[in-house]
Amino acid sequence: MPEKTFGEVIRAERELMCFTIEEAAKLLKVDRTTLYAWETNKRKPHKRHIREIAELYAIDKKTLVELLNN
Protein backbone atom coordinates (compact mmCIF):
# COMPACT_ATOMS: atom_id res chain seq x y z
CA MET A 1 0.00 0.00 0.00
CA PRO A 2 1.42 3.40 -0.94
CA GLU A 3 2.26 5.93 1.73
CA LYS A 4 -0.34 8.53 2.51
CA THR A 5 0.02 11.92 0.91
CA PHE A 6 0.45 15.17 2.80
CA GLY A 7 -3.18 16.05 2.20
CA GLU A 8 -4.46 12.67 3.35
CA VAL A 9 -2.46 12.93 6.56
CA ILE A 10 -3.61 16.41 7.53
CA ARG A 11 -7.22 15.64 6.65
CA ALA A 12 -7.15 12.45 8.75
CA GLU A 13 -5.66 14.37 11.68
CA ARG A 14 -8.27 17.13 11.34
CA GLU A 15 -11.04 14.56 11.36
CA LEU A 16 -9.52 12.72 14.34
CA MET A 17 -9.59 16.01 16.24
CA CYS A 18 -13.22 16.51 15.20
CA PHE A 19 -12.50 19.86 13.55
CA THR A 20 -14.57 21.00 10.63
CA ILE A 21 -12.56 22.39 7.75
CA GLU A 22 -13.80 25.85 8.74
CA GLU A 23 -12.64 25.44 12.35
CA ALA A 24 -9.20 24.17 11.36
CA ALA A 25 -8.78 26.90 8.75
CA LYS A 26 -9.61 29.54 11.33
CA LEU A 27 -7.06 28.11 13.77
CA LEU A 28 -4.45 28.05 10.99
CA LYS A 29 -5.43 31.58 9.92
CA VAL A 30 -6.14 30.59 6.32
CA ASP A 31 -9.24 30.49 4.17
CA ARG A 32 -11.13 27.18 4.14
CA THR A 33 -10.55 26.91 0.39
CA THR A 34 -6.81 27.09 1.05
CA LEU A 35 -6.98 24.29 3.61
CA TYR A 36 -9.14 22.26 1.23
CA ALA A 37 -6.53 22.71 -1.52
CA TRP A 38 -3.84 21.42 0.87
CA GLU A 39 -5.97 18.44 1.90
CA THR A 40 -6.65 17.50 -1.71
CA ASN A 41 -2.99 18.00 -2.70
CA LYS A 42 -3.90 20.70 -5.21
CA ARG A 43 -1.60 23.22 -3.48
CA LYS A 44 1.27 23.02 -1.02
CA PRO A 45 1.38 25.23 2.04
CA HIS A 46 3.96 27.96 2.37
CA LYS A 47 6.84 27.19 4.74
CA ARG A 48 5.41 29.46 7.43
CA HIS A 49 2.28 27.33 7.57
CA ILE A 50 4.12 24.03 8.03
CA ARG A 51 4.99 24.90 11.64
CA GLU A 52 1.42 25.93 12.39
CA ILE A 53 0.02 22.73 10.85
CA ALA A 54 2.53 20.63 12.80
CA GLU A 55 1.59 22.32 16.07
CA LEU A 56 -2.16 22.14 15.51
CA TYR A 57 -2.18 18.46 14.57
CA ALA A 58 0.77 17.41 16.77
CA ILE A 59 2.71 16.06 13.80
CA ASP A 60 6.49 16.29 13.55
CA LYS A 61 7.43 19.14 11.21
CA LYS A 62 10.09 16.98 9.56
CA THR A 63 7.44 14.37 8.73
CA LEU A 64 5.27 17.00 7.06
CA VAL A 65 8.17 18.29 4.99
CA GLU A 66 9.04 14.76 3.88
CA LEU A 67 5.42 14.16 2.83
CA LEU A 68 5.44 17.39 0.82
CA ASN A 69 8.62 16.36 -0.97
CA ASN A 70 7.28 12.94 -2.02
Description:
This protein has helices at residues 6-16, 21-28, 32-39, 47-57, 61-69. α2 (21-28) packs across α3. The chain is mainly α and 70 residues long.
SSE blueprint and pairings:
Layout lengths: L5 H11 L4 H8 L3 H8 L7 H11 L3 H9 L1
Helix pairs in contact: 2-3
Summarize it.
By secondary structure, the chain is an all-alpha fold. Helices cover 67% and strands 0% of the residues.
Uncertain segments are none
Output the helix-strand order.
Answer: HHHHH
Q: CATH topology, anyone?
A: 434 Repressor (Amino-terminal Domain)
Distance between the termini: 15 Å
Shape: globular
What fraction strand? under 5%
Which CATH class?
Answer: Mainly Alpha
> Rg from C-alpha positions?
11 Å
CATH superfamily: lambda repressor-like DNA-binding domains
The pLDDT mean sits at 94
Counted by DSSP, the helix tally is 5
Give the strand tally: 0
| Count of folded domains | 1
Provide the CATH architecture: Orthogonal Bundle
What are the key terms here?
single chain, 70 residues, mainly alpha, 67% helix
